Amino acid sequence: MTLIDWLIVALYVVATIAIGMYFTKKASESTADFFVAGRSLPWFIAGTSMVATTFSSDTPLFVAGVVREQGIYANWIWWVSVIGVLVSVFFFANLWRRSEAITEIEFISQRYDKSKATDGLRVFKALFDGVFINCIIIASVTLAMSDIISVILGFSNEALFNVPIFGGITATDVVLVGLALAAVGYTALSGLYGVVYTDLIQFGLAIIGSIALAFLVYVDLGDQGGIVTALQATPNFDSETLRFFPEFGWDLKTATFFILLAIGWWNYAPGFGFFLQRTLASKSEKDAVLSLYWFAFCHLVVRSWPWIIVGVASIIYFPNLADPEQAYPRMIDSFLPVGLKGVMVASLLAAFMSTLDTQLNWGSSYLVNDIYSPYLVKDKPKEHYVKAARISMLLLTIVALFVTTMVTSIIQAYEYIAVVVIPLAFVQVIRWYWWKINVYSEITALVTAAIVGNALLFILPDVGEERWFAVRMLCTAIATVILTIIVTLLTSSKEPTEQTIKFYGRLRVHGPGWKKVREMTGITPLSSGLKDNSIACLASIAMIYSLLLGIGHLLFEQWQQAVPYAVAIVISGWILHKKMPLVIKNLRS
Fold first, then answer.
1. Helix/strand/coil percentages in the chain, nearest 5
2. Whole-angstrom Cα distance, residue 268 to residue 249?
3. SS3 539
4. Rounded to whole angstroms, how far apart are CA atoms 402 and 135?
């Protein structure tokens, strides 16, 4: 790192603080301004913010790590998520925006009858998602940032001093705490306004840095006959590395792939977390839908291959690296020249702060909007709740830093979340399209997923290279679906309740699951088009995955394999050209 590199990093930090100060007054007007930016975001801003947030500091390290350990096909663990995002585009995004909730947890009170069970579920979900899951995510990105700082800046692992509970504090820890406090500072000042507009800077830096690194590496490998030839010449070359799909057989790898393809995307379909926050913050239903579509395209097509190229190349340049999650920062340190290294380091710092500010704002929205305001301290001025949100962010930061001391692997953290969270998506989907779903349905799903998912950690533990997380996820999902349906049939009322009718009257949801309510009320759905939406959704999935895989085959000089994907792109693109205008027509602009 030279002076120029450090100046670029400093310029980013100054820009984020300036943005925070600029939006302070606007964010302080109400909790709606603080948490959902006054519902004012155009699709490009909301969608780009989603892209920037998912490019957290752990993402390129994770991608490089799984490529080294398992092969390119291992990226299906996150590639499958886009199926769920596209389902959300065509079936849920407009409904969420129409609900005008501030958080997804608030939806519980909109959807279910007023009761102690409903209140209890809302509070528990706010704590479970807003604190527990939130802190695991923050811990994983902090762990990744620690690797980046120690490799690129060359800091020693020796403790500078000790702090009770946290233990020895290193120079890397000091930098991490400084970055965390900076993120807390500008987020507390500007709310979601500051988060999304600093995300634009982060997105620009990240795209420039990651593509530049991949380009320099790819060109350098040209002198060795190209990336494929150079990889094949490495001492411990494994043909699995270049596979886009696992070698199908009766084994755990094949089972994992098909389980991920079947249910790995579930929790993205109904929407969750910061995705929903951006959806709810969009200025219209049309903007909500287009923001998610823009995210899906950028997330899969634009960003995948720069990270994968660097991950594959790291095997060539660092064949004996002990920690695979250090591959990406080592490649940065080896290849990027003065200036570009500063851009990349700034982008990774920005990625860390971008994810952190989003998680803090999102977690704080649960604590204030779904616990503090409705149950603990009611009927206070708007300014009071904004102040409470700022204080809760600081408390979340302290808890998350403590959790960081207990997380040792980025991959294991995400696998654990997948096992206990993805099965919950079943009830979160059907509660929109079946009036009989009630609060006990959702409580059953939550309890079942928690008990079964955690029990399977002991029954089917990971042993060496055998990773059973997908099987655990499938078993948990099956148990959750069965018990949720049984409890729903046993506890649902014979006739729609007043709250159910009120919910339908506000959102006017389409689908056969609301037929009885439609007949009772005489209220028709606000928009139909299930057939057009379904066709557009399938065409979108085909087009985006064909783009992903077609580009990949071209980059790895597999020309013939790219041809079928080119044909699929043309066909799916033509279908979208016909159907997408009909989908947009049914949305509120």
1. 75, 0, 20
2. 28
3. helix
4. 9
Per-residue model confidence as pLDDT tens for the chain (589 residues) = 667 767 777 787 788 778 878 888 887 888 888 889 889 999 999 999 998 888 776 678 888 888 988 899 989 988 999 999 999 999 999 999 999 999 889 999 999 999 999 999 999 999 988 888 888 778 777 777 777 777 666 777 777 777 676 667 777 778 777 877 777 788 888 888 888 888 888 888 888 888 989 999 999 998 888 999 999 888 888 888 899 998 888 888 889 889 989 998 998 999 888 888 899 999 999 999 999 999 999 999 998 999 999 999 999 999 888 788 788 888 888 888 877 777 777 777 777 777 788 888 888 999 999 999 999 999 888 889 989 998 998 888 888 777 776 665 556 666 777 888 889 999 999 999 999 999 999 999 999 999 999 999 888 887 776 778 889 999 999 999 999 999 999 999 989 999 999 999 988 888 889 999 998 998 888 765 678 889 999 999 999 999 999 999 999 989 999 999 999 999 999 999 999 888 888 776 5
Question: What is the rounded distance in angstroms from the CA atom of residue 483 to the CA atom of residue 145?
Answer: 40
The residue count for the chain: 589
Structure tokens at 368: 């204030």
Q: For residue 102, which amino acid is it?
A: I
Residue with tokens 């299930």: 530
